[in-house]
C-alpha cells in the first residue's frame, strides 16, 4: 500500500536520496522501478487472500470448465484440444469444445506450465491455473503504468498502476483461483488500447502491429473483444469529426484493423463472424470511411481548387454513405450479415433481456448495477473520475480523447451489467490517476517553489514540475501554502481510506471460492460447509462412470470437472431448448418429469438445497427462473401456477403445483422429519424462514442416493422402469 | 460330503507318510482364531515331539489353497522356560513346496533353533493372518441392516503330522452368531465358539465348518496405496501417501437416507465407517489431507513423543462397496530416519506398511526417492517384496532421482516393521541446485547489464 505514495516520493526524490551519489535522473529511475516493482508484487499478493483463507483451489463455476479444458490441453496436446468433442456435457448432444471456446486462457496457462516444467519447476497445473489471474493482474499494473505515462506522465502512470493493483472492481475477477477468461482478458484489453494509443501517437507501424497482436490475444481470450472492435472505430470516428485526422491515425487504424481482423478470424469461435456479424460492422464501416477520407485528402491535394473540391466532397460523401447503406441493407436482408445477438442488444437496451431472453436475465452478474456496487468497487475513484475527466479536457490530445471515450463508454456498460464494472475499472483507474497525479503535482510544486525561491534562489528546476500552476505561484500568499498542505493531507487521507477499503473488500467479499462456504459458529469458531465437493466426489467415486446427472445448469461445469460425470446441461448455455427441458422436468409433477428424464437417459438428479443451513442461493430460490426458462419453450409450464397472488411461497399457502413439483419434492424429501432450529417446528426452512407446506413427500420413481452432511446437495437416483412381466 | 473328505485325507496321509522327511507328531495343539475385525488372526500353540530316530531340523505348517491365497503373514516362535519365565525365540519361517502335496496344499517351513533330537518336545507359537476371508452374507444390505459374514475353516487343524489332542476357539466380535457347523464336541459361550477337544487325528484331517456371525467392524480395505518417501538432504523427509480406499464388506443396497444416518446413528449404517485413524511418526509436521479436488477439512492431528495420530474422515461415510481416494502427506525431520552406516554409505530407516490402523492393503508400493546423484541403492527388508528402480524428476533435477520401488501385496498392520534403504551419496551434489539458482540469477543480471550497454539501433542516433 506504500506504493501509492508514488508521485510525492517521486518529487521528493532529490531530498531522500541526497546521501547516495546518484544523478537525479538515476535516482528517479531507481525510485520509479522500485515503486513499480512493489506495485507488481502488491497486486499479486493482495489477490492471495483466498488461498490463505481457504486453499489453493479453483473458484466458482466457469473456472472449473477452464480448468478442465486446461488439464485436457496439458495432457493431450494442442491438436487434441482443438478437435475436442466433449460427450460428457450436453448429453445427448455433446459439445464441440475446440470450436466453442476462447482458448486464450487455457493456452496461456498451459504455456506457463510447460515453461515452468522446462525450467525444471515441477508444479501442478492446478497451481498454475490458480495463480494465473494474480499474475496477469500484476502484468496489468505494468501496462497501466505505461498507458498512464502515455496519456499523461510517469507520475500518473505510477498512480494508475497503484490504483489498479488493488481496485476491488478488478480484484473481484482476478483473485487467486478465479481462473476465468477475464483474468487474462483485462490485461489483453488494456495492452491493446495502450499499443493502439501509442501507434496513433507515433504513427509507427510496429506499434500498430503490436496492437493487432494484442487484439488477437484479446479475441482468443474473451468475448469482450467486441468492446475493442467497437470502441476503436468510434474513437477514430470522433477524431475524424473533430478534425484530428492524420496520417498517424490512418496508419495505426488500418494496420490494426486489417491485421487484427485476419488474426482474429483464426480463432474458430470467431471465424467469419468477424466480417459478417452486425457487431463488427462499425469497424469495417470506419475502415472504409478512412479510405474515403484519405482519398479525399489526396484529391484535395491534387485539385488545389476549393470550390471544385467542395462539390467533389459532397458527391463522394453522399455516394459513399449511399453505397455503404445499401451494402449493409442488402447484407442484412440476405442474411449475409447476421443481426446483433441478444447479449449485444441487452447492452444497448437494459430491459431487453428481461423480456426476451430469461436465460441471460437469470444470471445475477447480468443484472443492472446498483449504486452501492459502484461505491463498493470504486470507492474514491467514483469522485476522482470526474476530476480526472476535467484534467483530460484541459489538456486534450489524441491520447486523452481515447481515455475519455473509453472511460465514458465503459462506465455506461458498467451501469447496464454488473460484470462489466470490470471493463470500466482500468479506465476509471487511469482517469482517477490523472486527477490524483495532477492535483498532487500542482500542490507540491506550489509548496516547494515557495520554500526554494527565498532560500537558495537556485535555478535548478525540479525535473518534472513544469505544470501550469507555475504561473500562479508568483503571487506568494501564505494562505495558498496552508491550503495546499491541507489539500495534500486530504488527498493522502482519501488514498489511505481507499487502500483500507480495498483490502477490506478483497478479504471480506471477493476471496470466497463459493464452493466451500464458511460461517461463524455460535462460539465464534469457523465452520466450513464443504458439501459441494462432498457430493461431487461421491458422484465421482460411487456412481457408474457413464452415469448421466441432471441438475440445473449452474452446476454443470462443476459436476463434469469435479464429479467427472456426464451432465445434461451446463454453464455454456448454448442450447436454450435443452435447458428449458431440464427446467420443465424440474417444474413438472414427478411422473411427467420421469418421462422427460427417461427420454434424456438421466440416472441421477442433483439439487442444491439450503433449508438446513440457511444457504440462500439454492435451487428453490432459483426455481422461478427454471419455470420461466422452461415456460419460454414449453407453454405447458406457466409461471402463475407456481405463485400465490404473485408471491412465491413454499409454506402451507403455496400453490398445489408448487408443493408437488419435482424440485419441491427433491429438495424437501424427508425434510419434514428434521428439526433444523431449536424452538421451531419440524421442517422449518432456514433459508426462507418458513415451515414447509408439504411434509409428507413420497417419491415414486426416484430414491435418495446421497445427501451431504449439511443437506446442501442432494442426489437422487432415477429408478429403472418397473418390469411389467 | 464330510465323510468323503475324511476318507480321502486318510488315504493321502498314508501315502504321504512315506515321503515325509521327519517323524514328528503334535502332542497338543490349541488354535485361537480371532474374527473380531476383518483381519483374521489365528494363534496356534503346538507342542511338537520328535518320534523318529533322526534329529529333525524343521517342521511343516500346512494351509489350504484358499488360505494360501489370502495368507498375509506367518510367524513362529519357540517357547522355552516355564510359565513365569517364558522366553520367546523367533523362528525362521519360509514358504516351501512339497512334491506330493495333496489337494494343492501349501506349506510353510519352520526351522527350529536347534534340531529336535529324538524324543524331545518343543512348544511353538504360530501366528498367521488371513485377509479377505470373511464373506458377507447376505452380500447386499440396506442402510439399517447390520452386516453378517461367513467364515469357513476346519474344525481340526490341517497338518501333515499326527495330532494327539487339539482344540479350536473362534472369537466373534459380538454374541450374535447366526449359525455354526457342529462337529461334536462343539459349543458356544457368548462371543466364543469352541471346537474340540478332538483326540488322535490323522495327518491331513479336515472337517469343514462355517461360522455365520455379525461383524460390523470397519472393513477398510485399501485397494492400492502408493507411499512416496522423498529424502532431502536439506533436513526433511517428505512422505506422500496415495490411498484408494474402499469398504470391503457387504455392498450397500438402495437408499442412503441422511435423516436416518444422522438421527439414528446406532441402528442406521452400523456397518459403515466414516472415521479413520492413521498412526504417523512423532515430530511429524506439515501434515495435509486432500484429494483430487482439494483439501478435506475433516481431520485432526495429535502429536506425541512416541507417535502422532491423525484422525480423519473421508468426505462421506463409506458404505459397502463405496470408494474414496485421498492423499495424506507429511514431513518428518531427517535426523531421525537417515543414518550413516559404518562403511560410509547412508541408509534410510523407515517403517514399512500402511499407517492406517486395522486396514488391509491389497497392493502396497513404497517409493523411496533418493537425492539426485545417489548411487548403488539397495533395500533390506525382513520379508520378500518385489523391487524395482525408477527415475523421477523433481524440482531443478537434471539427471533425475533414483527411486527404489518396493512392492508387496496383501499387507496388514503386522507388516509395519522397519526397513532400510542403503545408498552412497557425495555431499558435493547438495550444492548443485543452489549453484544452478545462483548462476541463473547471475546470468539474468549479466544479460541486463549487457542489454543496457549494447546499442542495437541500425541507425546511429
TrEMBL record, chain A:
Main location: endoplasmic reticulum
Reaction(s) catalysed (UniProt annotation): a di-trans,poly-cis-dolichyl diphosphooligosaccharide + L-asparaginyl-[protein] = N(4)-(oligosaccharide-(1->4)-N-acetyl-beta-D-glucosaminyl-(1->4)-N-acetyl-beta-D-glucosaminyl)-L-asparaginyl-[protein] + a di-trans,poly-cis-dolichyl diphosphate + H(+)
Localization in the cell: Endoplasmic reticulum membrane
Enzyme class per UniProt: transferase
Listed cofactors: Mn(2+); Mg(2+)
Pathway: Protein modification; protein glycosylation
GO MF annotation, one: dolichyl-diphosphooligosaccharide-protein glycotransferase activity
Keyword field: Endoplasmic reticulum, Glycoprotein, Glycosyltransferase, Magnesium, Manganese, Membrane, Metal-binding, Transferase, Transmembrane, Transmembrane helix
Ranges annotated as spanning the membrane: 29-49, 96-116, 128-148, 154-171, 183-200, 212-238, 250-269, 281-299, 311-337, 374-392, 399-415
Domain STT3/PglB/AglB core: 548-606
InterPro entries to which the protein is assigned, alphabetical: Oligo_trans_STT3, STT3-PglB_core, STT3_N
Gene3D superfamilies: 3.40.50.12610
Domain of life of the organism encoding this protein: Eukaryota
E.C. no: 2.4.99.18
This protein's GO CC annotations: endoplasmic reticulum membrane
Topological relation to the membrane, as annotated: Multi-pass membrane protein
Domain named Oligosaccharyl transferase STT3 N-terminal: residues: 35-431
Recorded family membership: Belongs to the STT3 family.
SUBUNIT field: Component of the oligosaccharyltransferase (OST) complex.
Protein name: dolichyl-diphosphooligosaccharide--protein glycotransferase
Species: Brassica campestris (Field mustard)
Taxonomic lineage: Eukaryota, Viridiplantae, Streptophyta, Embryophyta, Tracheophyta
TrEMBL record, chain B:
PANTHER family: DOLICHYL-DIPHOSPHOOLIGOSACCHARIDE--PROTEIN GLYCOSYLTRANSFERASE SUBUNIT 1 (PTHR21049:SF4), RIBOPHORIN I (PTHR21049)
Transmembrane spans: 435-454
Domain of life: Eukaryota
Signal found in the keyword field: yes
Signal peptide range in chain numbering: 1-21
Family: Belongs to the OST1 family.
Membrane-topology annotation of the record: Single-pass type I membrane protein
Name used for this protein in its record: Dolichyl-diphosphooligosaccharide--protein glycosyltransferase subunit 1
Subcellular location: Endoplasmic reticulum membrane
Pfam families linked: Ribophorin_I
GO cellular component labels: oligosaccharyltransferase complex
Pathway(s): Protein modification; protein glycosylation
Native organism: Brassica campestris (Field mustard)
Keyword Endoplasmic reticulum: yes
Subcellular location, principal: endoplasmic reticulum
Swiss-Prot/TrEMBL keywords: Endoplasmic reticulum, Membrane, Signal, Transmembrane, Transmembrane helix
Subunit structure: Component of the oligosaccharyltransferase (OST) complex.
Lineage summary: Eukaryota, Viridiplantae, Streptophyta, Embryophyta, Tracheophyta
Function: Subunit of the oligosaccharyl transferase (OST) complex that catalyzes the initial transfer of a defined glycan (Glc(3)Man(9)GlcNAc(2) in eukaryotes) from the lipid carrier dolichol-pyrophosphate to an asparagine residue within an Asn-X-Ser/Thr consensus motif in nascent polypeptide chains, the first step in protein N-glycosylation. N-glycosylation occurs cotranslationally and the complex associates with the Sec61 complex at the channel-forming translocon complex that mediates protein translocation across the endoplasmic reticulum (ER). All subunits are required for a maximal enzyme activity.
Amino acid at each position: 500500500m506504500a506504493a501509492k505514495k508514488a508521485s510525492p516520493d517521486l518529487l521528493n526524490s532529490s531530498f531522500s536520496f541526497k546521501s547516495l551519489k546518484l544523478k537525479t535522473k538515476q535516482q528517479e529511475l531507481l525510485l520509479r522501478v522500485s515503486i513499480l516493482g512493489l506495485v507488481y508484487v502488491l497486486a499479486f499478493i493482495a489477490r492471495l487472500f483466498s488461498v490463505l483463507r481457504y486453499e489453493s483451489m479453483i473458484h466458482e463455476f466457469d473456472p472449473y470448465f477452464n480448468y478442465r479444458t486446461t488439464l485436457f490441453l496439458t495432457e493431450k496436446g494442442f491438436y487434441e484440444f482443438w478437435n475436442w468433442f466433449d460427450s460428457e456435457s450436453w448429453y445427448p448432444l455433446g459439445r464441440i469444445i475446440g470450436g466453442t471456446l476462447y482458448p486464450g486462457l487455457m493456452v496461456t496457462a498451459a504455456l506457463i506450465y510447460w515453461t515452468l516444467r522446462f525450467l525444471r519447476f515441477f508444479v501442478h497445473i492446478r497451481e498454475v491455473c490458480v495463480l494465473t489471474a494474480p499474475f496477469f493482474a500484476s502484468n496489468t499494473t505494468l501496462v497501466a503504468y505505461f498507458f498512464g505515462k502515455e496519456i499523461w506522465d510517469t507520475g500518473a502512470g505510477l498512480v494508475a498502476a497503484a490504483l489498479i493493483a488493488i481496485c476491488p472492481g478488478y480484484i473481484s475477477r482476478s483473485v487467486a483461483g478465479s481462473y476465468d477468461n477475464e483474468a487474462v482478458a483485462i490485461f489483453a484489453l488494456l495492452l491493446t488500447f495502450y499499443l493502439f494509443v501509442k501507434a496513433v501517437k507515433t504513427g509507427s507501424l510496429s506499434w500498430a502491429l503490436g496492437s493487432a497482436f494484442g487484439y488477437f490475444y484479446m479475441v482468443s481470450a474473451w468475448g469482450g473483444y467486441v468492446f475493442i472492435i467497437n470502441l476503436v472505430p468510434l474513437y477514430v470516428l470522433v477524431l475524424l469529426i473533430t478534425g484530428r485526422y492524420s496520417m498517424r491515425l490512418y496508419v495505426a487504424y488500418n494496420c490494426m484493423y486489417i491485421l487484427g481482423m485476419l488474426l482474429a478470424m483464426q480463432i474458430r469461435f470467431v471465424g467469419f463472424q468477424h466480417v459478417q456479424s452486425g457487431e463488427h460492422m462499425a469497424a469495417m464501416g470506419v475502415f472504409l470511411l478512412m479510405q474515403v477520407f484519405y482519398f479525399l485528402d489526396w484529391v484535395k491535394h491534387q485539385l488545389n481548387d476549393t470550390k471544385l473540391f467542395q462539390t467533389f466532397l459532397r458527391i463522394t460523401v453522399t455516394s459513399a454513405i449511399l453505397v455503404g447503406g445499401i451494402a449493409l441493407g442488402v447484407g442484412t436482408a440476405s442474411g449475409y450479415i447476421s443481426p446483433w445477438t441478444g447479449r449485444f442488444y441487452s447492452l444497448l437496451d437494459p430491459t431487453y433481456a428481461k423480456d426476451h431472453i430469461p436465460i441471460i436475465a437469470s444470471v445475477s452478474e447480468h443484472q443492472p448495477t446498483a449504486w452501492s456496487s459502484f461505491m463498493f468497487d470504486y470507492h474514491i475513484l467514483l469522485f476522482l473520475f470526474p476530476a480526472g475527466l476535467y484534467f483530460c479536457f484541459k489538456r486534450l490530445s489524441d491520447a486523452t480523447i481515447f481515455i475519455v471515450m473509453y472511460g465514458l463508454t465503459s462506465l455506461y456498460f458498467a451501469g447496464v451489467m454488473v460484470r462489466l464494472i470490470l471493463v470500466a475499472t482500468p479506465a476509471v483507474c487511469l482517469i482517477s490517476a490523472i486527477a490524483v497525479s495532477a492535483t498532487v503535482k500542482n500542490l507540491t510544486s506550489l509548496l516547494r517553489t515557495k520554500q526554494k525561491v527565498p532560500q537558495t534562489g537556485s535555478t535548478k528546476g525540479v525535473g518534472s514540475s513544469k505544470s501550469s500552476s507555475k504561473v500562479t505561484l508568483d503571487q506568494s500568499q501564505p494562505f495558498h501554502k496552508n491550503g495546499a498542505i491541507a489539500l495534500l493531507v486530504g488527498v493522502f487521507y482519501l488514498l489511505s481510506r481507499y487502500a483500507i477499503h480495498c483490502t477490506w473488500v478483497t478479504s471480506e467479499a471477493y476471496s470466497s471460492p463459493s464452493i466451500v462456504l464458511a460461517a461463524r459458529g455460535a462460539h465464534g469458531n469457523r465452520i466450513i460447509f464443504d458439501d459441494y465437493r462432498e457430493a461431487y466426489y461421491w458422484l465421482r467415486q460411487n456412481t457408474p462412470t457413464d452415469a448421466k446427472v441432471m441438475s440445473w445448469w449452474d452446476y454443470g461445469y462443476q459436476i463434469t470437472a469435479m464429479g467427472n460425470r456426464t451432465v445434461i446441461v451446463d454453464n455454456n448455455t448454448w442450447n436454450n431448448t435443452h435447458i428449458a427441458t431440464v427446467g420443465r422436468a424440474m417444474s413438472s409433477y414427478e411422473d411427467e418429469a420421469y418421462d422427460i428424464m427417461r427420454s434424456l437417459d438421466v440416472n441421477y438428479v442433483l439439487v442444491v438445497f439450503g433449508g438446513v443451513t440457511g444457504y440462500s442461493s439454492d435451487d428453490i430460490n432459483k426455481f422461478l427462473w427454471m419455470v420461466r426458462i422452461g415456460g419460454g419453450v414449453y407453454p405447458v409450464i406457466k409461471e402463475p401456477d407456481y405463485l400465490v397472488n404473485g408471491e412465491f411461497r413454499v409454506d402451507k399457502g403455496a400453490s398445489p403445483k408448487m408443493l408437488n413439483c419435482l424440485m419441491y419434492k427433491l429438495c424437501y424429501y424427508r425434510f419434514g422429519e428434521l428439526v433444523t432450529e431449536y424452538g421451531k417446528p419440524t421442517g422449518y426452512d432456514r433459508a426462507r424462514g418458513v415451515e414447509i407446506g408439504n411434509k409428507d413427500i413420497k417419491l415414486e420413481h426416484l430414491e435418495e442416493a446421497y445427501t451431504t452432511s449439511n443437506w446442501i446437495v442432494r442426489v437422487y437416483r432415477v429408478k429403472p422402469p418397473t418390469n411389467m412381466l | 460330503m464330510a465323510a468323503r473328505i475324511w476318507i480321502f485325507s486318510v488315504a493321502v496321509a498314508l501315502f504321504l507318510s512315506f515321503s515325509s522327511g521327519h517323524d514328528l507328531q503334535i502332542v497338543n495343539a490349541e488354535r485361537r482364531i480371532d474374527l473380531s475385525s476383518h483381519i483374521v488372526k489365528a494363534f496356534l500353540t503346538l507342542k511338537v515331539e520328535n518320534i523318529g530316530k533322526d534329529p529333525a531340523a524343521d517342521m511343516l505348517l500346512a494351509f489350504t489353497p484358499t488360505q494360501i491365497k489370502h495368507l498375509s503373514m506367518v510367524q513362529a516362535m519357540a517357547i522355552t522356560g516355564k510359565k513365569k519365565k517364558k522366553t520367546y525365540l523367533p523362528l525362521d519361517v519360509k514358504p516351501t513346496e512339497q512334491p506330493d502335496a495333496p489337494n494343492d496344499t501349501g506349506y510353510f517351513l519352520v526351522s527350529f533353533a536347534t534340531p529336535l533330537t529324538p524324543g524331545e518336545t518343543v512348544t511353538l507359537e504360530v501366528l498367521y493372518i488371513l485377509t479377505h476371508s470373511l464373506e458377507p452374507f447376505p452380500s447386499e444390505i440396506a442402510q439399517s441392516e447390520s452386516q453378517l459374514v461367513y467364515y469357513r475353516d476346519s474344525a481340526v487343524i490341517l497338518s501333515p503330522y499326527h495330532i494327539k489332542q487339539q482344540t479350536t476357539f473362534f472369537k466373534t466380535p459380538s454374541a450374535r452368531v447366526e449359525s455354526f457347523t457342529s462337529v461334536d464336541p462343539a459349543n458356544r459361550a457368548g462371543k466364543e465358539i469352541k471346537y474340540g477337544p478332538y483326540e488322535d487325528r490323522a495327518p491331513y484331517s479336515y472337517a469343514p465348518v462355517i461360522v455365520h456371525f455379525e461383524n460390523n467392524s470397519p472393513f477398510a480395505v485399501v485397494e492400492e496405496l502408493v507411499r512416496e518417501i522423498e529424502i532431502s538432504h536439506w533436513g526433511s523427509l517428505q512422505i506422500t501417501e496415495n490411498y484408494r480406499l474402499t469398504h470391503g464388506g457387504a455392498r450397500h443396497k438402495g437408499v442412503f437416507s441422511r435423516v436416518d444416518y444422522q438421527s439414528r446413528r446406532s441402528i442406521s449404517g452400523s456397518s459403515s465407517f466414516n472415521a479413520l485413524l492413521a498412526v504417523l511418526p512423532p515430530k511429524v509436521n506439515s501434515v495435509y489431507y486432500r484429494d483430487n479436488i482439494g483439501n478435506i477439512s475433516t481431520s485432526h492431528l495429535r502429536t506425541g513423543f512416541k507417535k502422532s495420530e491423525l484422525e480423519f474422515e473421508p468426505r462421506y461415510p463409506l458404505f459397502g462397496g463405496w470408494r474414496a481416494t485421498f492423499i495424506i502427506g507429511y514431513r518428518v525431520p531427517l535426523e531421525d530416519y537417515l543414518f550413516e552406516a559404518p562403511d560410509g554409505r547412508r541408509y534410510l530407516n523407515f517403517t514399512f506398511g500402511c499407517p492406517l490402523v486395522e486396514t488391509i492393503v491389497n497392493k502396497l508400493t513404497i517409493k523411496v526417492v533418493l537425492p539426485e546423484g545417489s548411487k548403488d541403492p539397495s533395500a533390506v527388508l525382513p520379508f520378500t517384496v518385489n523391487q524395482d528402480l525408477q527415475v523421477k524428476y523433481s524440482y531443478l533435477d537434471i539427471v533425475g532421482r533414483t527411486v527404489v520401488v518396493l512392492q508387496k501385496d496383501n499387507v496388514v498392520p503386522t507388516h509395519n516393521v522397519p526397513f532400510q534403504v542403503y545408498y552412497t551419496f557425495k555431499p558435493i551434489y547438495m550444492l548443485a541446485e543452489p549453484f544452478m539458482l545462483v548462476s541463473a540469477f547471475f546470468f539474468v543480471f549479466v544479460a541486463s547489464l549487457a542489454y543496457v550497454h549494447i546499442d542495437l539501433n541500425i541507425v546511429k542516433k
